[in-house]
Design goal:
Number of helices of chain B: 8
Largest sheet of chain A: 5 strands, parallel
Radius of gyration of chain A: 15 Å
Radius of gyration of chain B: 15 Å
Distance between the termini of chain B: 18 Å
CATH superfamily of chain B: Thiamin diphosphate (ThDP)-binding fold, Pyr/PP domains
Helix content of chain B: 40-55%
Oligomer: heterodimer
Strand content of chain A: 15-25%
CATH topology of chain A: Rossmann fold
CATH class of chain B: Alpha Beta
């Protein structure tokens, strides 16, 4: 139950991304995007304001196109549930450079804290394993951030992790919302010019 | 019996010419030959999806990484994609689709008709340029035109291949 979740998302994401070492980040829409921006702006974050369910597919497409770069899909439990079948696609394609982290507060935090499907029933790590993603990690303490960073940024992928985060009231941290600007900045940082 | 015109080879040849390295799909019977060509080509990646809207993320991510990809699906799958189609569009990521139509020419299965009838309307409504084609020998050049618009302009474009080209699945009945 989320009432017992202890991890504070902003500090946790900030400490995690401090160890990313060039990993490109595809945050899901809403809070994970605000968390990334709050951790310090970077052109290597593809901020998202929409397309619920597409964080993992986008990260997968990027991972296949850039096999020498590490890619992290950083999303929430509701966004992951909407694109849950994409875990099967990830397992099937099996990119060694792809990591997925779900910040699981077990609620729809952006829309009024309605209870989510991972609150009482669904176990996201077991679902990922069921789809065929063999390496998974469930984190419940802030102190595990170093171990989690090694797993997400260094272990042979695809890897999948959850961090059980507390429901929290964090100040709005809103990055640029022009999709063309976000995408072009990301591509420029990658050194990509052509389609 | 005459051999049906091989439009799949024309499309595949354009895929190769244009350096499209990944094809995302939920399969359709009408796409069988094309998907087999992709599967058998070691330089082209076939990505099998659980649902079609995943492809809007994959093609966007692929473009962000500097590579070309596309989607191949049945018209019913278009209905699964509508919100997701806003995603490449807002970033002006190219989204090229080839859609085999159901529910229009001699359709046996009434459950296919509603989405088939709506496919072009809903695609245009969300901002996708549609290229309907009903002659097999014109599929290749139509696909080339759509690909040019998508990859050179950063647009979403869909080639709609008429059920008249594919033929209706008969389920053993006339």
């Amino acid at each position: 139950m989320s009432g017992s979740n202890k991890i504070q998302r902003r500090a946790f994401v900030s400490d995690l991304l401090g160890k990313r070492d060039g990993t490109l980040v595809i945050p899901g829409l809403g809070s994970p995007t605000w968390d990334c921006f709050a951790a310090g702006d970077s052109p290597e974050y593809l901020y998202s304001w929409g397309g619920m369910g597409l964080s993992v597919p986008t990260a997968l497409g990027l991972a296949l196109a850039q096999p020498n770069k590490r890619i992290l899909a950083l999303t929430g439990d509701g966004e992951m549930m909407m694109g849950i079948g994409s875990l099967g696609v990830v397992a099937d394609q099996a990119p060694g450079n792809l990591a997925i982290l779900v910040l699981d507060n077990e609620h729809f935090g952006e829309t009024g804290r309605q209870t989510g499907l991972s609150s009482n029933q669904a176990d996201l790590c077991k679902i990922a394993e069921g789809f065929g993603i063999k390496q998974t990690m469930a984190v419940t303490e802030h102190g595990a951030v170093g171990e989690l960073a090694d797993f997400l940024f260094k272990a042979p992928g695809p890897v999948f992790a959850t961090a059980k985060i507390a429901l929290s009231d964090d100040p709005w941290m809103l990055p640029v919302k022009d999709g063309v600007a976000i995408a072009q900045r990301f591509r420029t940082a990658l050194g990509v010019d052509e389609t | 019996m005459t051999t049906p015109y091989d439009w799949s080879s024309d499309v595949f040849s354009e895929i190769k010419k244009r350096n499209i390295e990944t094809v995302c799909t939920v399969p359709d019977g009408g796409l069988t030959q094309l998907l087999n060509m992709v599967k058998d080509d070691t330089d082209t990646r076939l990505v099998t999806l659980s649902t079609e809207e995943e492809s809007m993320g994959i093609v966007t991510g692929h473009w962000l990484g500097g590579k070309r990809s596309m989607v191949a699906m049945q018209s019913s799958g278009v209905g699964n994609c509508i919100n997701a189609l806003g995603y490449p569009a807002v970033m002006r990521a190219p989204c090229l689709m080839i859609v085999t139509m159901r529910g229009q020419w001699g359709e046996f299965n009434p459950w296919q008709v509603q989405m088939g009838r709506s496919t072009e309307t809903v695609l245009e409504a969300i901002g996708v340029k549609c290229f309907p084609v009903d002659k097999p020998e014109e599929v290749g050049e139509t696909f080339a035109g759509a690909a040019g618009l998508a990859f050179n302009g950063g647009f979403s474009a869909a080639v709609l291949i008429s059920q008249r080209i594919i033929g209706a699945k008969g389920f053993g009945k006339e």
